[in-house]
Amino acid sequence: MRSDKYFVKSYFIILLGLVVLPVLFNACEGEFKASQSFGSLDLHSTLYTQLVCPEEIAISQKTMQNNDVFATRKVQLFSQETGTSEKLNFQELEIGTELSAKVSNICIAKGDFDESLFLSPSITLSDYQYIYFKLDKTMTLKSFEAEVNANPCIVGVGKSHRYKSQALQVQDQHIGEQLSYLRAIKADGVFRLMGEENFPSLDLDEKVIVAVIDTGVDFTHEDLKENIWFDAEGVAGFNAIYQEDISDTMDEDYHGTHVAGIIAAQNNQLGIVGISPTNTLIMPIRVLAGENRGGRSFELASGIRYAVENGAHIINMSLGSVGSASDTDAVVKDAIQDAIRNGVFVVTSVGNITSTDQILDREISKTGYHLMPSIYSTEFDGMVSVGSFDSETGDFSYFSLYSPTLLEISAPGAINQDIHVYSTVPYINTKDNHQSYTYSYGTSMAAPMVAAGAAILKSVAKQKSKTLDPALVEWYILNSSDSDGHIFDYVENGRKLNVNRLYQMAHKCL
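Request: output the structure for the sequence above.
Response:
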């Protein structure tokens, strides 16, 4: 028996050497130095053993990549999976139905549309704008579509949906738990900035603009004010909320500021340090308002369009609207597609389940309940949806929606069930004016970690004078991730964000 055990043990060691050594010496371009260790090797990770540079692989094309959203039909009030066109033609649209439309700026200039429909008469978005309106009479879908098709000024029409943030709760605590999630995503460069010399340096100076499309951002915050993007007039971003001052992007809630801090809180010995603090500018875009934090489709689409036209490299949307199999948001989907085509990488949160949600099953599906806009990540290269795992245990978070086929990556949305993600909040939101940091949890907190990773990647590319289109950004993020067999049932290939490997891979492959 002893000899048999020895034989098995020896065989295992030989086999381990045959599997592991080629990996260590063939990562990316074939060189691997011990001083650039990616951390502990997970033998269950198929992603790690297949780590190659993107020049050597074919980037897959998702279904909607080359098809315009409104190319085949100008009116899209229901998803393509819903019934037959003949049945839908006679579906009745009630008076007061809320809709959004994409309309031509040429027609706007001619005065063909009522100015009251727009965010503001002074807004300038090239080519087209998104508007909101209600039906003034009851009519069938067929007759409504005939009216729209006869109007050359309308590019497309979709239902208007209400969006809300994907954070579940704020905790007013005062203990430092930031290190847990930084360790979980292996944000080693941040540890170096914090004085830990055993970690590699995050030496980045090429600025990348991340648009935080949310409740606004406290751009005066002590830990954010030096990392805020301003336009030529000195305005911090854009307010896309109907009939509000387009220059007022101050966060009256907390959510957008919390998201911004996770991405880019300064390395200034105050509060916290963001995951991408030295190379990122936050572009505040306010689309969610008040305590309800619910923006409409045309406001979200307009915010996306503003980000594209003003130089954002990455968009983070920690928000969503619950939809059933019959629901789609064509104008938001159109705006996302336009962003990707213009080189902008898009990150969204997959969403949470709460007692008030329509979603009864946490597993998302194209043919069941899902969250918009995150479901569109299944159709576009250059867009990812992010789920949540607990950084302390590594378990998939109990609140996060999931899908082993539709969800592509995860990051910490909580530390554990009791302690959450620590970040910046506005001074006006806190009970104590001197306390401007707090805890929150949800997939809203997971998404900006991926956005920050993308900002690091884009900054490395800029330093090397390389251009990365959104599809390649997605490829790098997914193929540098960890693969955890414990969460294969929740996210495709059990992917977890690995910032250090992403950084190292960018340096090797670009």
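The first helix runs from residue 2 to 26.
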